[in-house]
Design a protein that fits this description.
homotetramer, 207 residues, 8 helices, mainly alpha
């Protein structure tokens, strides 16, 4: 069993360690999203002016919710993949580091959408960030499962394929969102919220 | 035992993983509170001006303390609930993600109260954040325990009910705080500090 | 064994959980210190102006180092205490929450010292933060060990007393620092760096 | 077995605890890098102006990528070293605390490079940060392995030497980068990206 022995002898971070770093980066990225909600410096301190400022940030609140939910979905997928992934190797490790790089980028992408409101460039930048994350998650899974490289040698191929189908939902929805952004940037990011809804349907559902 | 087997076969994050992510988000939210304490840009750098600025931030310090204590209470409750919760399912997972979304929002809500001082809108925004958190914690517990869905099948119903009573303290105190804010916003948030005090009393106390 | 059974039946966070939250808050507070090093907005982008700005921040770098080292000392002490503390109760839990509140405050106290340079108020504010932390660590240990409340019933009293002596170093050095600050605020915070040096000496050393 | 018993009796943080704090600080430092990407305040909110601002930040994006990758390399090395390090002592603990101090400094060093663009002082400051980190990692390993101080007494010396060779790559590349910066600061930091490439080659590769 060369795969297993590689894992035992190697001094690469274990999958448990990768999960710990990932949990940390997910938690921080999700919490840093709130920094985008900073109110503009108040000129007068009345209830009316505060109420006006808060309602003026409605779009920012929506961005906060959507980014938080998307990061949560990626976090859930991360655990679903590592539920089956038992080993790591150098290439797999670097796929994961690039995944984390784009996870940590999400607060910045969110801030662009928030600061610029209805703006096709901002929407596409944000969708592209999610798109790349989707592709990296797909790459992570395909790399780990092809020839059962990093998973149990008898892992059922139906589980492998179902998970590919499920992960593919994200890039496809991102591409649709980008296309709609080009036509009309008004609330096009709402489309991304269809990701968790689509995943509930049978062909994409985790049993 | 379908419940147990669901847990073993499923690739949902384990409750241990949810706790790890939650601990991370609680720790970061609690530490980010300190960013609200930033002093205004100093014009002169004398001891007197610094002293004046620090005392001018007394209200912000109070907000820091109250938010830190409230988050600590929710963190304690989180562990109390997960002490009994043994499994998770998709709905339960999403209740928890929304809980974390409102935990991560607390530094922002705190900054609103701080920047606007005595202001009914800010106080109600902050209380509403805590109120929603209270309801989500209640929902988490009721969902997990109804029909012993995610807890041990022989968990004593007195423990379940006692915990419902205990968790209900938070939304009730929040509603009182919001009502008092409408009448008089001066220091109405002090009322929230009664939450840990009430919880010490017998009917709400954890044995 | 009432002590042990209390621990098993209770739904208070375990000491393992308190340690996890504490590790998180220590890690974040230590890393947030770096935010105090932000350079002022550059007017011209030459090597000379950057060099001047960096040397102008020498005092801030010193503050970064001292705060990082002090937090590291508290983190080490935290683990030394929890090496022996086996249980928790409500009072002990709240001592720890207040400890974490003042740990999370350190980046703010550091920023005050940095922004105001040589200033007796800033130095005393910072020393007071460390002083309170020292007292809370002392309280944590005294509470946990008096009558062997939360430690092994046969824990050697020499270990208990040695640790009290060791922990007392911090408040005493803080009081000296505050006194020196009143006389001369120039570099008085250097005195705090004597804490790790004193701890190396036999009567305070951990075996 | 004095080594083992030292570890059991001591109340120093365990290597597991040091790894937990380190994972936290690495995760936060890697995520804080994104704060350097903040866009300048927008004057007009058009797609063109946003696009211009984003392309104007291309250099900042490059800095983000390079810092993230370097921190990831150090994180991997950290685990490789602690794969073999089984105990800790006071000196080793302090080497690690200084390592973490310079890990937490990386977001600041990155911000200097970003804000000042092509500037020899910024490039050298950044390279010096990485250089010191490289030396501290080397010191950590040499201290732990000389006389098998903190590692298994029968750890193969070929593993020890291979790891010294591997760790030495970083300071050497940093010194080259600093020399090139002095001659020509244009994109000299690209040279740092050769670190992961060099490590793939046989004499430096982890088996």
């Amino acid at each position: 069993m060369p795969g297993l022995s590689t894992d035992e002898n190697s001094s690469l971070p274990t999958t448990r360690r990768i999960e710990a770093l990932s949990d940390g980066i997910f938690a921080i990225a999700m919490t840093l999203l709130v920094l985008n909600l900073a109110l503009p410096q108040a000129i007068e301190h009345t209830s009316q002016s505060l109420l006006k400022m808060l309602t003026g940030q409605l779009y920012d609140f929506f961005d906060y919710v959507i980014s938080f939910i998307l990061l949560a979905i990626f976090w859930i997928m991360h655990h679903q993949q590592f539920h089956y992934i038992q080993r790591t190797d150098t290439k797999h490790l670097w796929i994961n580091i690039f995944m984390l790089m784009f996870v940590a980028l999400v607060p910045f992408s969110t801030s662009i959408v928030g600061d610029y409101g209805v703006n096709v460039v901002g929407d596409i930048f944000f969708s592209a960030n999610i798109l790349i994350l989707g592709f990296l998650f797909l790459a992570n899974w395909v790399y780990a499962t092809s020839n059962h490289r990093l998973v149990r040698h008898n892992l059922d191929s139906s589980i492998i394929n179902q998970s590919i189908r499920r992960t593919s939902v994200i890039p496809i929805v991102c591409l649709v969102t980008m296309a709609v952004s080009l036509l009309s940037p008004y609330w096009s990011l709402w489309i991304l919220l269809s990701i968790p809804l689509i995943m509930i349907f049978k062909p994409f559902r985790k049993v």
